[in-house]
Amino acid sequence: MNNITFPKNFMWGGAIAANQCEGAWNIDGKGASTADVMTAGDKHTPRRITMDLEEGAFYPTHEAIDFYHRYKEDIALFAEMGFKTLRVSIAWSRIFPNGDDAQPNEKGLQFYEDLFKELKKYNIEPLVTLWHNETPLNLVKAYNGWASRELVNFFATYCETVFKRYKGLVKYWITFNEINALMRPLGNWNHGAIIHEGTEYFIHQKDNVNMRFQALHHQFVASAKAVKLAHEIDDHYQVGCMICYITTYPLTCNPADILKAQKEDHVLNLFSSDVQVFGNYPYYIKKYFKENSINIITNEEDDRILKEGTVDFYSLSYYMSVCTSEESKEEKVDGNIMGGFKNPYLETSDWDWQIDPMGLRWTLHHVYDRYQIPVMVTENGLGAKDNVEADGSIHDDYRIAYLRDHIVEMGKAIEEGVDLICYTPWGCIDLVSVSTGEMEKRYGMIYVDKDNKGNGTLARQKKDSFFWYQKVIESNGALI
């Protein structure tokens, strides 16, 4: 039993993304996206970008878990768990196959209309991400992705199209998933849709720091334009930012470590949301730009656009924390987008991510204290290997323990005054891992019969965590 009370209208649910679950990558008028030309990898082998498809290569997004054809079955399972909301994303290239098309693809528009209506049938509120780690591939080939200012208007056209089409079906929107991921070289392809000559592995891309920050500026402007458009089309629309929050502690109480942790928090975690919530570039980023020879090109109207397009709520992904230090040679650990020094007080997952539920509570206070707008935890979960028993059962106590501990800390944050309104743990159903392309790095409470090589029946199976989360939602967080 949990003696902390969650708000009566708290939005319990789960989160998925189009490129990791839909499949149907080239049917009903959909164009190729940046995710569709990434081969499978694993924990030790990075995924490859192949711009043109290679015979014999395996592209896990092409079928993914076939949510495109099975969404009714999956939504029925989400409803059985008691979901109040489902975070989904729209594949831009399903609406505008090339990204710069004059007219949208009606079959793509109809698919998402049917999807949102199916959710509404079960009283599940759609929480819709407009851009989630995929850009129409043509926009890379023709414009070099978000490095080009032209994508701002293409994105605005796409947003206006879906805002008008789904008026009355959707209330909550997120502009860019983990927008701050472009702060890291890893973000070149997955987040910026930027390609450099001579690049084969996306993790090992050549890096042009200035180009990355130019791309990020274009996404800031595109996000602000989307927010303003949404409010003009429907004043009931609520639009938020989404940050990959890597909670970073100083490894020691050495003042140098404390200052380093503060700087990394400013630049890697807070910068992007400062722009999207406050509508301007923060003071501290000027020195960072100077230190890294970053000189971005802006238009005269950009200051006004950013100020007019500030978000209504703040959302974040939270999986783990790391430590940082000026001098330490301590063991390092991996993480979502970035890793850091190992914290001796924490355990790690199968993929070497540190498990830190109390860090989520600290982070919720940190961001709410800064922004004073409603907060959503839109990704949180444990990637692990699951074993199917002879009787078909899947005992994932490790996942239950991870989620339980984080929910407890969320409840404490709410009790302490944080306006947390939503929790959508990542991968409520098993799906393709964006970092490795694996299926066997499983996050779901619903098992999907598919392996890393694409073999399997795609049959769905409830894990122990399914029944546990069902009780959590039914009791509004009391039975954990």
UniProtKB/TrEMBL annotation:
Highest taxon of the lineage: Bacteria
GO biological process, one term: carbohydrate catabolic process
Gene Ontology cellular-component annotations: cytosol
UniProt keyword Hydrolase, yes or no: yes
GO molecular function: beta-glucosidase activity
Pfam name, any one: Glyco_hydro_1
Keyword line: Glycosidase, Hydrolase
Record-stated family: Belongs to the glycosyl hydrolase 1 family.
This protein's name: 6-phospho-beta-glucosidase
Annotated source species: Amphibacillus marinus
Lineage: Bacteria, Bacillati, Bacillota, Bacilli, Bacillales
